[in-house]
Fold:
Amino acid sequence: VQLQASGGGLVQAGGSLRLSCVASGIAVRVNAMGWYRQGAGKQRDLVAQISVSGSTNYPNSVKGRFTISRDNAKNMVYLQMNSLKTDDTAVYYCAAAYGRYWGQGTQVTVSS
Structure:
């Protein structure tokens, strides 16, 4: 199983980014998929999750600003991040099956 995340970068506060995760060896349509983030000196936290049925879950810190989606045909998962804040700065990770599988992280830096 491989999860390849991309799309991170440097953005100003208030801006947007879209992260992408391409999966191989696992089908995103039959697995819960999630995005996590880990800021410097902080624990890794869930920021978005999509279940097999398509239901989504977000912590209050990103609710209304972040949207997780998936493309079953492309076997990809996305994280649309809008109205970014400096507190969103972190390494973002794609994960499958409730954290059983992890991709490498992609750095998101939000400047003030």
DSSP finds no helices and eleven strands in the chain. The chain has a mean pLDDT of 97. The longest strand covers residues 17-24.
